[in-house]
Amino acid sequence: MLRRLAVVPLLLATCLAAPAATADAAAPRRPAPAPAGCADVPVPGAAYAVSACLADLTTTGTVPTGHTDPADWAGLEAPGTVTPSGVPGVQVDGYFPDTSTTNTNHGWDHDSQFVLRLPRHWNGGLVVAGPPGVREQYANDRIISDQVLAKGYAYAATDKGNTGAEIYRDGARPGDAILEWHRRFAELTRAAQRTAAGYYGHAPRTTYAAGLSAGGYLVRWQLEHYPRLYTGGIDWNALTFTRNGSLLTTLPPALRAYPRYRAGEPDAHAEMLAAGYPAGSEALWDFHYRTQWDFLQRVIREEVDPGYDGAAQAGTPFCPAGTGAGCDTDYDFASRPAAVHRAVDRIALTGRIRRPLISIQGTLDVLTPPSAFGDVYHRMVADAGRAALHRYVLVAGGTHTDGLVPLAPRTLQPMLPSFVTAFGELEAWTRHTR
């Protein structure tokens, strides 16, 4: 099912990668201690967990108490966005056993961190999320957690097991770091379901997976590989690894063509469009060239194809086209050795979802442009014979994250209202499929 949707404008700054740390943001944030009489909530399988009874589990309450990290969700919402508030309950912060240490939240220096929020007035449901890009467990606090807590859902989020600009250092084999993302999402889902059962007296009646970008990729994988854990899922501008390479085939053409477009070469614009970057999105290209395309190409390529640049790690930033071997601007996935294609196969989606899924995709997304990502996955689902389980919504004027809207306010529209609408549609749809 495919439809197009115009969104209601909000006001609205951004980055798929976590923003550069300021002096304040770099300091470890420790959750405030639980007030007297607030019992710890056990989380099965966790190596460490600390509970706090809070007057408000939304960001209105958790920012002043230190139970979220605004740096983690900076740039994911439009300026001026107002989200729901006033949801009392218990928050549990902790981590599962892990050997990597990229996540420094709370001074723990420990990966596989999670946050779990249990509202006082529970509707019997659970929403589980993973962060976009290389962010941490609080990244979705404004765009997902606040929204679903206000509806009465319990909420859980994972840091995916590795964070930051060097995720490729985690794991022994190419693709291991990304495969860990999926294991950690499923691990948290099981633990959150059991925690809710112990806390409320019965297991969640519904469990939804939700996520933006790389978090949306997690949603699709979960519904393909762990369907028994979920009632359904919703993804937003989802990253889609396929056997054809995904970002590894869309980013290098942009890295080659954009500098020539900026220099005024007439053929370069047509090359950008041919690579899948939508007409009308030109105002976004410079920002993505400077902050997103090169960074993500090098990080993802190093994760699945570390031999491309020899002993170097994640290549040379912004190497000019024509540099040759080891330059990510010149990267050609199709010509890489069979071992590289096998590494991508390990993390590739198939389209064989087994639970209802709603995908929302911005028409002016220039990180996961629809022709190379959303449209492709919609066809994959249909080709797998699962079309009845997929609703694909194209959001006119939507781009990768709502914080980018000020770059072209007359052209771009925030997608958060579409996410909220689509989540309500997922609830109604799955009410009859449980």
Task: Outline the structure in words.
Helix content is 32%, strand content 14%. With 434 residues, it is of the alpha/beta class.
Write down the secondary-structure element order: EHEHHEEEHEHEHEHHHHEHEH
Computed structural class = alpha/beta
- Provide a count of the helices: 12
Rg over CA atoms, rounded to whole Å, is: 21 Å
SS strand fraction? 5-15%
Secondary structure blueprint with pairings:
Blueprint: E1 2-6, H1 23-26, E2 48-54, H2 59-65, H3 70-73, E3 89-95, E4 113-119, E5 125-129, H4 141-149, E6 154-158, H5 176-200, E7 206-212, H6 214-225, E8 232-236, H7 247-262, H8 266-274, H9 285-304, H10 338-347, E9 357-362, H11 374-383, E10 390-396, H12 416-430
Parallel strand pairs: 1-10, 5-6, 5-7, 7-8, 8-9, 9-10
Antiparallel strand pairs: 2-3, 3-4, 4-6
Helix pairs in contact: 7-8, 7-9
What would the keywords be for this entry?
ten-stranded mixed β-sheet; alpha/beta; 434 residues; 32% helix; globular; single chain; disordered N terminus
What is this entry, summarized?
By secondary structure, the protein is an alpha/beta fold.
